[in-house]
Amino acid sequence: YKKGANKTPIWLAYSRWRDKIIAIHIGKGIKAAKELYYKVKNITPNIQKIYTDGNSCYDIAFKELGIDNILEISKGKTKTHMIEAINSSLRDNIARMNRKRTLNVGK
C-alpha cells in the first residue's frame, strides 16, 4: 500500500464576484479541467477572466476547447489565494473528521 496512490483531485471553481465556490468536479487530468469549464460555463456563460494555479492541464484543455474569448487567463498564486484558503480549510476539516472517525472506531 502506497500512501496517496489512489488520490483523485477535487477541482473547485471560485467566483470572486459571487465570493463562493460555483462548481465542483472530481476527476483527473485534461478531461477533468474541461468538465469543470463546462460546469462553470453553464452557470456563468460570460466568463471574462480565468485564474489558475499553473497546472498544465488547463493550458492543454483551453487550447483543445478553443477558448479565445476570455479577456485574461493568468497563472500564479497571487490571483488564486482565495481558493487556496478554502482548499486549506477543507483539508483541515476533512483531516479532523478522519481523526474523529478513527478514534471512535477503536472504542
Can you give a write-up of this model?
There is one protein chain. The chain has three helices and four strands, in the order E-E-H-E-H-E-H. About 45% of the residues lie in helices and about 20% in strands. A two-stranded antiparallel ribbon has the order 1-2. Strands 3-4 form a two-stranded parallel sheet. It has helices at about 30-45, 55-65, 80-105, and strands at about 10-15, 20-25, 50, 70-75. The longest helix has 25 residues, at about 80-105. The protein has about 110 residues and is of the alpha+beta class.
What topology emerges from the helices and strands here?
Blueprint: E1 10-15, E2 20-26, H1 29-43, E3 49-52, H2 56-65, E4 72-75, H3 81-105
Parallel strand pairs: 3-4
Antiparallel strand pairs: 1-2
Helix pairs in contact: 1-2
What's the shape? globular
Q: How would a crystallographer describe the biggest sheet?
A: 2 strands, antiparallel
Q: Give the tally of β-strands.
A: 4
Cα-atom radius of gyration: 16 Å
The oligomeric status of these chains comes to single chain
What percent of the residues sit in helical stretches (DSSP H or I)?
Answer: 40-55%
Order of helix and strand elements from N to C terminus:
EEHEHEH
Percentage of residues in DSSP E strands:
15-25%
Structural class: alpha+beta
> Given the structure, what is the number of helices?
3
Taking pLDDT < 50 over at least 5 consecutive residues as the criterion, the unreliable ranges are none
- Average residue pLDDT: 79
Strand order in the largest sheet: 1-2
- Report, as a whole number of angstroms, the end-to-end distance: 26 Å
